[in-house]
Description:
The protein has 2 domains: 3-178, HUPs (Rossmann fold, 3-Layer(aba) Sandwich); 196-318, TPP-binding domain (Rossmann fold). The protein is built from 10 helices and 16 strands. The protein has helices spanning 17-26, 42-51, 64-68, 72-85, 96-109, 216-225, 233-237, 268-271, 291-294, 303-318; strands at 3-7, 10-11, 14-15, 31-38, 57-62, 89-93, 113-120, 126-130, 135-139, 147-150, 165-168, 201-205, 228-231, 258-262, 279-284, 297-300. It has a 9-stranded mixed sheet with strand order 9-8-7-10-6-1-4-5-11, sandwiched between helices. Helix 8 (268-271) links the parallel strand 14 (258-262) and strand 15. The N and C termini lie far apart (48 Å). It binds flavin-adenine dinucleotide.
Amino acid sequence: xxxxxxxxxxxxxxxxxxxxxxxxxxxxxxxxxxxxxxxxxxxxxxxxxxxxxxxxxxxxxxxxxxxxxxxxxxxxxxxxxxxxxxxxxxxxxxxxxxxxxxxxxxxxxxxxxxxxxxxxxxxxxxxxxxxxxxxxxxxxxxxxxxxxxxxxxxxxxxxxxxxxxxxxxxxxxxxxxxxxxxxxxxxxxxxxxxxxxxxxxxxxxxxxxxxxxxxxxxxxxxxxxxxxxxxxxxxxxxxxxxxxxxxxxxxxxxxxxxxxxxxxxxxxxxxxxxxxxxxxxxxxxxxxxxxxxxxxxxxxxxxxxxxxxxxxxxxxxxx
Length: 319
Ligand SMILES: Cc1cc2nc3c(=O)[nH]c(=O)nc-3n(C[C@H](O)[C@H](O)[C@H](O)COP(=O)(O)OP(=O)(O)OC[C@H]3O[C@@H](n4cnc5c(N)ncnc54)[C@H](O)[C@@H]3O)c2cc1C
């Protein structure tokens, strides 16, 4: 069976959920091989969890440089392994870093690039949700080893047994003149909430929330559900919530199991970032709001009346 390379997305050896989704997607095309790039000792920390999502091999590219530079070592590792293993495809998370890696890798390999896939099919085609989610299309790379970036949350992770046989990869020396070196790292100050693009549930607030103080109503529901908090651009532009939480065309793309939109009208640019969520719940006092066109469940009502009741009910059921 053909190998399918998966770049492991991790922070200091802590594997991100999207990696398991990529390993699951890879199984539709062949046998998944995980590629770990990081500081010495990283593979030891992640090997077991990669095996539990079906990684047959784990390519290990470890060095101080691998952890000390931005995308270059990852592109180097993937292109080195791809040239040796001739895989059926290379899968990378469609995060901002992942998209850059995928683009550079496709150029190096002379391959077709498939971006932001929400599904990977056995015939090598991918599903994409385009033009703000208005169209669903299938695409196939016309040449080379397809390089595919897969949207976090696009594919549901399923556990499977893999041998996780270790193969070491030696990386070429990084040319500092051509690469961006990491000079410092600061943890995101985000409290205990899950990261927006990784979260299983996202609760977002829009201009309808009315002020930064009142965003508490969104946060309380999010915390009851163990969810991440998101915001529309209008809410961000009005200063209600920080820009890093913006969902949409010019913000983050999310694809959680459940997306709750509070006081969001559902403009096409907002929908572009959340339309592929599995279940969408909207609360809006305007029955004509376009968000109801894509909502699975809608409540026409005042969010300040509905959200606290929902929060209370969720808390009761957990307790
Ligand atoms: C190039 C470009 C890029 C953009 N990128 C993005 C993007 O990334 N993300 C994004 O979100 N937008 C983006 N936008 C902006 C987008 O077009 C909309 O303006 C924005 O999404 C509107 O945000 P909103 O729904 O919060 O506000 P509004 O459209 O003002 O809607 C507020 C909603 O709240 C409802 N409401 C008010 N009070 C209550 C209440 N008490 N209870 C219940 N409901 C209530 C109203 O009925 C209304 O439907 C972009 C626009 C452009 C031109």
